[in-house]
């Protein structure tokens, strides 16, 4: 079987981390979203919202972390690896805020390709803000639009995961792989 590196993507609060946690509970190899770790580390250093205050630095740190996740996924003994958010997310967010970024961001999207991409749609009923998620639901919808545009630009076929129970969403994903 060929190595499957599968990314779960979607705007903030669409249920990605919940699905990753359930996949882990079922014994799948999964890599968590790293932006919360980057944000919390910055907060410990006195920067309340690194993405808002220094978006290029934040995005560079995310890009490096996501490239590392991709490379690590290639080395996993498991044939299927799930990742919460992918490399093109970094470009989509930078485009969302209207900031420029180095060519290396684009090159990374072209160099590291996922085998499948599952997108979770905005879902207002489950959306929650917290100390690391500063966007409101309307902003989350706009981010979703940028994610779709960016992933399609890099040639991905996005498989939309229906709004449903965690169990049914997991079964849908597993059926597609």
UniProtKB/TrEMBL annotation:
InterPro entries: NadR/Ttd14_AAA_dom, P-loop_NTPase
Protein name as catalogued: ATP-binding protein
Pfam family, one: AAA_28
Entry's transmembrane regions: none
Annotated SUPFAM superfamilies: P-loop containing nucleoside triphosphate hydrolases
Record keyword Signal present: no
Any one GO molecular-function label of the UniProt entry: ATP binding
Keyword Oxidoreductase: no
NadR/Ttd14 AAA domain location: 6-169
Keywords attached to this entry: ATP-binding, Nucleotide-binding
Source species: Flavobacterium potami
